[in-house]
């Protein structure tokens, strides 16, 4: 007897080129990082009461900065996935594609920040501003106090420095990882742990060092290993029910683990200990995130449909510009008293309502609106134009 079609659809193979959980991960990471930075300005109590049910989001919002590590994990997963599928690019093409992806929006962001800073500071700090800008243009701004902790441009952009520094390694690292995944994974984690335990943890003040690439190699290693496993299991045509069941369980375990780590991290009150806690929890957090990425992308088709659908993919496409602009917009709106508030100074300190709620909603709306415009008027057209210019040249050489 022929098996009913609706019984086969939940076991349909996962597409090797597209990991469903990556779309939801990107949206959640950007949203939670944004919520954390907006909460820093509003102090709106992150809880919700629906009748007798009270949902307390406070631990997850207060530890929202930890989603930066999950965002870098996702980057390692997505950057390595083509190599895991045997579609590696030569280094030149890899760098071209990365440049087309990030530089137009990044340069525009820096230009706007530069203009606002010049208006605010005038000519009094041109030398300092030039050094800050030069570090940002060379993606070394996380290496200098002036352009990392003291930047006048945009504080959240330090993650792009780490990303681009990792880009330099990937074309050489990825083929080795594909041939010897466990050896390469162990080496990357080992290097990260050595830097974390033997260098960064021993410093009296580690603020300048705990977010540097060597301390984050284990994050990228977890992402690459998850992509390697996903690529191997996604191409399997047998044991689909077992793979989907294990994937669903792994995704659920990953979510539970991430929430557990966030609760533990949120309980740390001392600022210096927060840095150490973030560094100490980085491996466990991103290992759980890797479980969600690989497991969710291998799970039953209905689960994958929840993780990647048109609305989620649409929001996922806005996250790059949302991430770059949300904090700056939140600070500016508060400075401009939009929406207006009654307090003479910070309205968050006196828990001024309904300003806190209106301000929070406005910050999200403004960041999403601006990211929508920049994505479809700058990021995508520039990337498309660049590909059109590069493809003919590549075909001519061929």
3D architecture notes:
- The protein is mostly helical and 398 residues long.
- It has one domain (5-397).
- It contains 15 helices and two strands.
- It has helices at 5-8, 20-42, 58-62, 67-84, 91-121, 126-137, 145-148, 158-179, 181-199, 217-234, 240-266, 271-298, 301-307, 310-335, 355-397; strands at residues 47-50, 53-56.
- It has a two-stranded antiparallel sheet with strand order 1-2.
- Strand 1 (47-50) and strand 2 (53-56) form a beta hairpin.
- Residues 1-8 have low confidence and may be disordered.
Condensed summary:
The chain is mainly α and 398 residues long. It is 72% helix and 2% strand.
Secondary-structure map:
Layout lengths: L4 H4 L11 H23 L4 E4 L2 E4 L1 H5 L4 H18 L6 H31 L4 H12 L7 H4 L9 H22 L1 H19 L17 H18 L5 H27 L4 H28 L2 H7 L2 H26 L19 H43 L1
* Proportion of residues in helical segments: over 70%
- Oligomeric state of shown chains: single chain
The Cα radius of gyration reads 22 Å
Determine the structural class based on helices, strands and strand pairing.
mainly alpha
Q: What's the rounded overall pLDDT mean? A: 91
Biggest sheet: strands, sense, closure? 2 strands, antiparallel
Global morphology: globular
Total beta strand runs: 2
């Amino acid at each position: 007897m022929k098996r009913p079609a609706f019984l086969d659809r939940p076991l349909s193979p996962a597409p090797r080129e597209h990991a469903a959980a990556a779309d939801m991960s990107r949206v959640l990471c950007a949203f939670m990082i944004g919520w954390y930075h907006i909460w820093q300005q509003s102090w709106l109590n992150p809880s919700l009461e629906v009748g007798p049910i009270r949902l307390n989001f406070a631990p997850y919002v207060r530890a929202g900065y930890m989603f930066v590590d999950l965002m870098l994990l996702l980057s390692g997963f997505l950057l390595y996935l083509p190599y895991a599928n045997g579609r590696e690019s030569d280094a030149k093409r890899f760098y071209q594609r990365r440049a087309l992806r990030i530089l137009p929006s990044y340069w525009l962001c820096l230009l706007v920040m530069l203009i606002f800073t010049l208006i605010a500071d005038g000519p009094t700090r041109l030398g300092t501003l030039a050094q800050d800008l030069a570090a940002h243009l060379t993606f070394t701004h996380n290496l200098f106090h002036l352009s990392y902790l003291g930047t006048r441009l945009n504080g959240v952009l330090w993650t792009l420095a780490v990303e681009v520094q990792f880009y330099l390694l990937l074309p050489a690292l990825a083929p080795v990882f594909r041939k010897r995944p466990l050896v390469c994974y162990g080496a990357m984690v080992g290097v990260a742990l050595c830097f974390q335990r033997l260098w960064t943890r021993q410093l009296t003040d580690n603020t300048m060092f705990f977010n540097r690439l060597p301390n984050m190699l284990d994050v990228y290693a977890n992402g690459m290993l998850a992509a390697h496993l996903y690529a191997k299991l996604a191409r399997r045509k047998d044991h689909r029910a077992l793979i989907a069941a294990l994937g669903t369980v792994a995704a659920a375990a990953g979510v539970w683990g991430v929430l557990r780590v966030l609760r533990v991290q949120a309980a740390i009150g001392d600022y210096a200990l927060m840095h150490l806690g973030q560094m100490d929890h980085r491996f466990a957090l991103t290992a759980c995130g890797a479980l969600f990425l690989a497991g969710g992308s291998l799970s039953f088709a209905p689960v994958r449909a929840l993780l990647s659908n048109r609305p989620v993919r649409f929001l996922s496409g806005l996250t790059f510009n949302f991430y770059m602009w949300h904090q700056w917009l939140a600070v500016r709106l508060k400075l401009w008293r939009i929406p207006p508030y009654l307090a003479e100074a910070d309205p968050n300190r006196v828990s001024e309502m309904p300003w806190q709620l209106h301000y929070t909603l406005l910050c999200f709306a403004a960041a999403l609106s601006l990211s929508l415009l920049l994505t479809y008027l700058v990021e995508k057209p520039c990337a498309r134009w660049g590909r059109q210019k590069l493809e003919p040249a590549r075909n001519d050489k061929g």
